Queue: 2 jobs
Job 1
Amino acid sequence: MDLADQIAQYMVSGLSTGAIYALIGIGFAIIYNSTEIINFAQGELVMLGGMFTLFFLETMKLPLPLSILLAVLATIASGVLFERLTIRPLKAPTPLSLIIITIGGSILIRGIAMLVWGKDTHALPAFSGSEPIAVGSATILPQHLWIFALTGIAIVSNKLFFQYTITGKAMRACAVNRRAAGLVGIDVRRMVLFSFAISGGLGSLAGIIVAPLTMTSYDVGIMLGLKGFCAAIIGGLSGGIGTVLGGLLLGTLESLGAGLISSGYKDAIAFVILLLILFIRPQGLFGRAQTERV
Amino acid sequence: MLEIRNITQRFGGITALEEISFRVAKGEITGVIGPNGAGKTTLFNIVTGLYTQTAGSVILEGIDISRLPAERLASRGLVRTFQNIELFGTMTVLENVMLGLHTRSNSGILACMGKMPWHVREETRIRSESLEWLEFCGISDLAEQTAANLPFGKGRFLEIARAMAVKPVIMLMDEPAAGLNNRETSELAELIRKIRSTGVTVVLVEHDMELVMDICDRIVVLNLGKKLAEGTPREIQENPAVIAAYLGEG
Amino acid sequence: MAVNREIIKFLAMVVVILVAPLLVHEGYLINVMVFIGIHTMLALALNLLLGYAGQISLGQAGFFGLGAYISGILTATHGINPWAAMAAAALFVTFLAFIVGFPILKLKGHYLAMATLGLGIIIYIVFNEAVEQTGGPSGLSGIPNLQVAGIVFDTDLKNYYLIWAFTLAAMGLALNLVHSRIGRALRAIHDSEVAARVMGVNARLLKVQIFALSAGLSAIAGSLYAHTMTFIAPASFGFNFSVELVTMVIIGGLASIYGSLLGAALLTLLPEMLRAFQDYDIIVYGLLLIVMTMFMPGGLVKGVPSALSRIRGKLQGRPVPHA
Ligand SMILES: Nc1ncnc2c1ncn2[C@@H]1O[C@H](COP(=O)(O)OP(=O)(O)O)[C@@H](O)[C@H]1O
Ligand SMILES: [Mg+2]
């Protein structure tokens, strides 16, 4: 393979992991926009997606599609439960207490997952075989196609939900101004709960579709979560196209960097990008700076 | 003393202030009034370096302070109080005032860690001077209370004591009478006069017209981000544009 | 007078710490107490930043590790005097934190948390990947012990006194600092950064300075750790340890120097007591973080006395004073 072929190959795998980051990042953004919380447990929901699927598939011996569906639902339930038990009861939430409580939640979930499923890494079967398909000079796995397709569907339906349904519009209103939304009769707490449910759903989906490629274990949530956050930051914490582009950009840069520079430092690349964005353009690549109110 | 020159402030689409100019004379009490949303607080935020204006400049005693960040202004004698009281809630009342002497003390991190003798002396001075400012504002009895537990009215007085501890030449007050009862309001009027008599120039944003008309030497009226009028209390009370703006609001 | 009471409290603690090893005969417990000392220093360093200035750092383990690795590499690989290595580590890490502190501490809240976390992880990755220098995941060994006037600190007991000498010094300096104009300025930034700035506090610079101080102190703890253990590996300096440090501070009490000691002691003893749990201690940390934040946000140092007085009030049927 010459360099161009190699690059094409890196792009394919970069774009597919990028799509995963985008899904996770949108989850971050949805919760952030309705609550101003960065949910540090977001990555754990991604992990739960993969692990629940494994549980239904291997322990309960259910067919794959059903396992996936149940896993998504179980993760949504976990996200909602998490919000109910930890965030809602907080009497006087401050950014610091929210950070600490979601970190606490994240390591708690991780610990429980370790207790239940052990420390081994597991592989989910690919959804439809692993016979590589040649595309030009690069090859692509069927699972990559699944990732692109399912991510695309998830993002589009998410967009439609926020654009056209009453609940979606109400959630957007909360994102713009929570107090005002409450005054016009929107049940803000319910919208917060919904935002946890939706991002739990998106996160679990991400965890499920990536598991056949990268394996899964109780601790995959940390890195996936952080990279999803990175995607969201690049996208200016938008629940839409900004974060999608952010994820794809991060995925490809990471894959190219790992392939062409050093695979050991692959994870460091994402964090260097994260820091650079936070330092130079904290409002994201596509956002506009605002004057903080005093 | 203080000169506002052609200040314009835009936030995205909206223009909060447009071409505002006026002067504050030394030793006077200048009132800035106007309906809610007129841009009064925004103007204070610009003068005190918290916002960077879109255009225009602020001149303090002949020096352009427009580009100076907030923390550089206290040492030039410019202080303020806040519309929504900003106390250091976990600290005691006395400690709040002691912070006012931050710019007038200079022990660094190492001197403080090592408890150097000059630092200890400085600390004693800070404490005794702060007690005097509590006395000045009539809240000495609260010195050891935690600021967050103060009744609202006392909080306003504490903010003023803290600002006075800076030894300012000019003090901006953002709606100091809001939330005060009648007795407290008259105490406040008394205190503002007393502050002026120590030679401090005062700029006062206030909705309580009785108070404003009573203690201000000059008044600037803002409406929807524009300067509507300027003059003595009497002139303002008789100004038809001002009357229209206020009646229109209420 | 209040000042004297502070001094008596501190001296009482010094006495307890001096005699503690004489009462404990199990060598293993002394070893645990060595770790309590190191953890106290680290918790203290974080508390200055988190508890006083209100700025979170999820990358403290990185600075701790940098201190350990710089000291370890300079001595084990380059044969430099351990004390000189410790000084070099402390200075370098302080300087590094001062430089990166400017862009990092411009960030607030969640952004700051994520940025410090990212920084910590980058450092951790370097420990693993720079195999030539650090020995990679399998670690760096052969780090010499510290020595003073012919005494080599090579037993648990000697290390106990070495480390607690540093820890007590750090606590004393920190107590002085927090009761000074700088301490007040830090708490002011925490309570209302805007008001602090208007009062003339250069919040931006002070935050960076405290971040650098906190990092430097962590690096000294790291250097001490390297020279007592004589072996270091990246696993001790990962994200989990950063979270553990945050947990210590939260449990002991934000903005409390003695709370740092309490939190560090509890969290060091806890896994020892819960031997059976082994790896599952993270469940306990998670629960502790959540439960403390929800029910005792002031930490044990403030929470326990107020809970006690509430119980006493209930027993005597009196109205309850506010916590
Ligand atoms: N940081 C900001 N971002 C956007 N809009 C702002 C900001 N600060 C003030 N405004 C807007 O500027 C206008 C003037 O507000 P303000 O100065 O608070 O009025 P006042 O103090 O006279 O009641 C309002 O429309 C307000 O919403
Ligand atoms: Mg206002």
Job 2
Amino acid sequence: MDFAFTLEEAAFREEVRAFVRSHLPVDISRKVNEHKHLDKDDFVRWQKILYRKGWMAPGWPVKFGGTGWTPVQRYLFEEECAVAGAPSVISFGVNMVGPVIIAFGTPAQQQHFLPRILSSEDWWCQGYSEPGSGSDLASLRTRAVRDGDHYIVNGQKTWTTLAQHADMIFCLVRTSSEGKRQEGISFLLIDMRTPGVSVRPIITLDGAHEVNEVWFDDARVPIGNLVGEEGKGWTYAKFLLSHERSGIAQVARWKRELAFLKRMAGEIQSGGKPLMADALFSAKVTRVEIELLALEITDLRVLASDREGRAPGPEASILKIKGTELQQAITELMMEAVGPYALPFLPEALHADWDGTPVGPAFAAPLAARYFNYRKTSIYGGSNEIQRNIIAQRILGL
Amino acid sequence: MDFSFSEEQQLLKDSLQRYLEREYSFEARRKRIKAGTGLSAEVWRALADMGVLGLPFAAEYGGFAGSGVDSMLVMEAFGRSLVVEPYLATVLLCGGLIDQAGSSTQKAYWLPRIAAGNAIMAFAHGETDARHDWCYVSTRAERKGSGFVLRGRKAVVLHGGQAQHLLVSARSEGEPSSATGVSLFIVDAGSAGVQRRDYATIDGLRAAEIDFANVEIDATALVGEYAGAASTIDSVLDRANAALCAEALGALGALYDLTLAYLKTRQQFGVPIGTFQVLQHRMVDVLIHLEQARSLAYHAAFYAHASDTALRRRAVSAAKVQVGDAARFISQQAIQLHGGIGMTEELSVGHYVKRLTMINATFGNIDTHLERFAALA
Ligand SMILES: Cc1cc2nc3c(=O)[nH]c(=O)nc-3n(C[C@H](O)[C@H](O)[C@H](O)COP(=O)(O)OP(=O)(O)OC[C@H]3O[C@@H](n4cnc5c(N)ncnc54)[C@H](O)[C@@H]3O)c2cc1C
């Protein structure tokens, strides 16, 4: 056992650090560090920088444009990007549908879609959930009926993250209502510009527009956009979900947030003394720091057991549960740190070009809204209750 | 010992609840918040007519000499309907300060006006570097001629932008964190040198940052003893905190009802999600939190007016901790058990959660009251 990085790994870290330092646009990292609103263009600009360097898809096989890095290198890359304040790469294309197309797509689909994911030409969104089908995804009802060279799609998806930016949506659709529910589900790639596809915003309790309803009204989708076999969509969906769950922990990013929390707590005065000198508050921050360190190492252990690039198994659920719990704890402590300055609600202050005077410390404005927003993390990507069911069944054998 | 409400109390509770159900629906509230006025004239008038605005004051001032338990009933009803009117600011805080410390002239002037709905007031007390320490006052009051000059800045003053008059705490002696040396003044919000920045709060109320740049006031503005306001402030904030606990109780009760109903109706895997044992146990924990919170909110309401200050402080801080913990747990679980729909602006769940979370950031958070209770033990 050796927790130290090798010389090669240390050199790799330096290489990534130097690249990120010289290429990450300051206006973007400022937004990230100050918790400001990120536009579509901010994500795309950074992803294109990674693309030009060949670092857009570290997890893909080299022949499709991956990097061939070891798990440790991928971890170091993530960490350097996060510490520098790079935006997270939008997962839907590169981490979700990409691996599915690589594993199950036709050569034609691979040649068409994968380069467009790498270059950020297509923004993808995920069309799984429906109003009546959340945890019980297999009950989904959006129908795709074969008509010559097309599927005619009718139904409604919901909670679709950033569909307002999307060019493409990958959907689970019902192609048969015979037999087992899971066996009637297919995996379909749909162009958002298809006539009959419409997007309606859903506003969340923090006032943000992040999720949407996506409606399909006789949308005609070419059969060439079916991934794999008809009726096998459930298998691909499960493959994809385990990718989604492991990406969810984002330890490196939350180390940056924790450092921010500690800096803030050093600046904030509480009764004329620095908040960090408050024993109760500092104990809570310290506990989170220790848990995050443990999760980082657990994450690395899971990664290390995954050298062949297999999708992570049920242990990904551990990362999802613990990761989201810590994210929620950190956003809550940040809100708690600013005391009564959690109250002022100035949505305009979340935009980088706002030049008004903040109410209270400048860092306070987004914090309560962010705490409310992060309640989503224990719901999406398979709720934490569902994750515990998975662990109970598949690890504990109960 | 008796945990029941008197006939008058039951009547007050019922009529207020009926009024709010009729006039303060979730949709009506949403419109009122959007209007951005921080006060709806017709609601304020109705509350005055019902006797709610004068409830805590003596009959000679147009009130009903209401107890802490009476205030609790009002605030619990407000919590259930998520009322965003300046009741706490005007009636309980400013009315309370004047009632406890004011001269008979001041009481005779202000209290009937508050009771009749003709005075909107705010308590300008909190400061940026205070966070939750309510002894911390750095705003200065210097004597000038027979009057005073105020200099300083107040932070997150609830309804500070809507108030016509402000009760301002300012120090004439000692370090900012010293427990003594603070006085209270009534200041016309339109006075020269008063600058207010009004803004919305995330839970639908309004607050303001207020600057006092050499604001000159005359001797009659002083409320209570010069440099001797500490115990009045402590007592009024205790009552306000007991009232906030009651408001929280109303919101918690609503979340409990909404979530339990959802567990019985939402179907996944072909059954109501309430049939999953893990959710049953979670909901049981919600109930236990609610009942424990209710016990200490009642306890605090009863002792909020006690003359034994140690008893009062312990009861109030205990309630703030217990209700605060319940507010966290129940809020988080209400969203979690609703799934995606619990995250939406459209559903009332999130609005209860926002109010409860902000109550935990008002007049001392859980930690502050944990420490205060421990120090009193
Ligand atoms: C902000 C946000 C973004 C999202 N983005 C996307 C997206 O881009 N694409 C997409 O397809 N979906 C997305 N989702 C949807 C998300 O995956 C679902 O919300 C989630 O699967 C839960 O489904 P539900 O909301 O219908 O809740 P329900 O399934 O109705 O669950 C309600 C409650 O019951 C519990 N529960 C359900 N079944 C069980 C059980 N068997 N045992 C124990 N407890 C159970 C749940 O854990 C939850 O607490 C997003 C959701 C949110 C909140």
